[in-house]
Each structure stands twice: as structure tokens, then as C-alpha cells.
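Support case: flavin-adenine dinucleotide complex. Customer-provided input:
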Amino acid sequence: MAIIGAGMAGASCAQALAQAGLAVQVFDKARGPGGRLATRRMAWVDGAGQPIETRLDHGTPGLSVQGGAFDAFIRQGQRFGWLAQWHPVLAEGSEPALQDAVLHVPVPDNPEVCRQLLSGVSTTWSCAIDQLRWTPAGWQLEAAGEAQGAPVDAVLLALPPAQAAPLLGPHRNDWSRHAALAPMQPCWTLMGVAAEQGAPDWTLARPAAGPLAWLMRNDARPGRQRVPGQAHWVAHARAGWSRQHLEQSPEWVQQQLQAAIAELFGHAVAWQHATVHRWRYATPQRLSAPGASFWWDGAQGLGVCGDFLGGAGAEGAWLSAQSLAEAVQRWARGTAEAA
Ligand SMILES: Cc1cc2nc3c(=O)[nH]c(=O)nc-3n(C[C@H](O)[C@H](O)[C@H](O)COP(=O)(O)OP(=O)(O)OC[C@H]3O[C@@H](n4cnc5c(N)ncnc54)[C@H](O)[C@@H]3O)c2cc1C
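Agent response - structure generated as follows:
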């Protein structure tokens, strides 16, 4: 069977199915796994003309746990060393909900969780699937008019809803319409390297007002690179602010976010390099289909999982994928018995 998407949902679904002995092939349009569990390699040149590479976690700041099943997964990651706890030092005036929060940070970078989940699974990168064609031999995946792999008995979509919708349209119009309307929140994200001198002594701020939702000191996170003289920052704008300024130029957004950071610090910041990234679909606004944590159509061998079905965040994506994997295993057993 084929899984489209190698973020938290696709990778954990693939692992569950592979462990159950099913043959799985994963496709992703990116050059590697992770999806929104993302880390950017930022290449820049310093004042002395030296080329520098800085890695900044511009996707999920970390994994937090609400339920027992995901907790067991997190503990497994800690045991094997690909997750570490981060107890950030909170800036004064930060939103109190985070006072005691523990964030579980993938080590050495955010995609590591998905890399681990996919070890031993067959993967194809840089492959944007744009059509699912039903043939007598099974599902044929296509990218830019070319068939990708052999036909498969089932195809599972683990994509943000806006990207799943066009693929679902010809086969499950009801799901496609639902996915197209699923509200996702955007997030403008700033990644920057500033002078260490003058940096505050806290490592995470959640301001109560203004454009910034989060500002974290990336190089204070477990397993991250520390460079003398540099402070690495990642800022996430609030969803409302990001939506309001979604079509603004990156230059304008960068200026606004840097001004907000200077205001938070109480002084000008000596930036050495900075850039912004626009996440159009960062987090689900609310559950799009309450009660259904995944979609599965056994008659067609077509399924969907992801955070927009399982609940906001990485935990929701993981839960949705586990539930879909269980349904697919039951279906595969039934199909084998009937044969
Ligand atoms: C800025 C930001 C902040 C966040 N903050 C938090 C937080 O604090 N806590 C939390 O729990 N979660 C947070 N999240 C959300 C969390 O990252 C997601 O809920 C989770 O990673 C979603 O996983 P997924 O597998 O459902 O989707 P994704 O990670 O989006 O994976 C989808 C994959 O599908 C691929 N793809 C898309 N279209 C195609 C195609 N046509 N063909 C092939 N591949 C395709 C993409 O490249 C991607 O790899 C945040 C996300 C962002 C971006």
C-alpha cells in the first residue's frame, strides 16, 4: 500500500503498518521526512564574508502530551535518545499556561522523529503526487503525468486538508469538500541569528499581546548547535496576526516581527541574519469532523489521517494515524481471509 505524506501522521502510520508485516511505500513532495516537524538549514554569509550554516526549528516548537498512548511513544523516544525534555526559562509576563510545561524536543533536529519512524520503510522523496487513478490492478499514483511505483491495493493520505482535497475529489467528493473547508491557521515564522551580547537570560517568551505568539532561543534547546557570539531565535506570529498579514511581503513581515522582538527585549537587536517563512496551514483551528479521527473507505482502499482529523497538533496527527493503521490492518486481515 502507499502512504502520501511523511510528516508525523504519515510516518507513524507507515511504522505501524510495516510492523504489522504490510508492505508500505511512502511518498513525499519534500526532500526528506518531517512535514511541519521542520528544521531549516539557513545558509548565510557573516560580516567577515565567511559562509555560515545555521539550523533553526521553524515548525513545531516541541511535542506536548495530553494522553497515555502518546505518552508511551514519547517515553520510547526519550529511551532511545531521539527526544529530550526542554524546560525553557520563561520570560516575565509570559502566558501562565506554560509555566510548568515540558516540551519534548526531537534531537538533533525536528524531522528526527519521522526519520526514526520511517527506518526500514521504503520512501520516495521530492515526489508531489497530483493524481490518484483507479485501475483494474489497483491504485496508480501519479506525479506530473508520470506513474509512481506499481499499482497498490490501498492508498492513505496523510496531508494537510487543503492538499488532500484535490486528490480525494474524483473518488470521495464528500471527504474532498469537507477537507477543502477544514479551517487551518497560518503562521508567519521568523528565524534569525543575533549577537549574543544583550540577549535576555530567558529562553522562551509567550507575550500576552502583540504580533508574537512565541519567541524561543533555538540554541538553548537540547542537542542544538551553540556558536560563541551568536543567539539563535525563532519567533511565531499569532494566528490572527498571520491571517491578517498573510499576503504581505516577507520583507514587511520580517520588519514587523523584528520590531516586536526589539520591543520585547526593551532595546535594539543586532541581527546578523534573519529570514521569514509563511506557513499557510500550520495548525487546525478546530476538529474538522468531530467524532471521526480518521477516514477509511474499505470498499475503495482509500484512507485519510492527520492533525485536522485527530485533534490539533502532533499528538492529534499521531493518534489519527494509529487509528487509521488499526482499521487498515483489520481490512487487510479480512481481505486475506476472503482470498
Ligand atoms: C509554526 C508551527 C507551529 C506549531 N506548533 C505546534 C505546537 O506547539 N504543538 C503541536 O503539537 N503542534 C504544533 N504544530 C502542528 C504540528 O506540527 C502538526 O500538527 C503535525 O506536525 C502535523 O503532522 P501531519 O503529518 O498531519 O502533517 P504534515 O506535517 O503537514 O505532513 C504532511 C506531509 O505531506 C507532504 N505533502 C503535501 N502534499 C503532498 C503531495 N501532493 N504529495 C506528496 N507529499 C505531499 C508534505 O511535504 C508533508 O511532509 C505547529 C506547526 C507549525 C507549522
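Residues 89 and 202 are 5 Å apart (CA to CA).

Case will auto-close in a few days if no follow-up is received.
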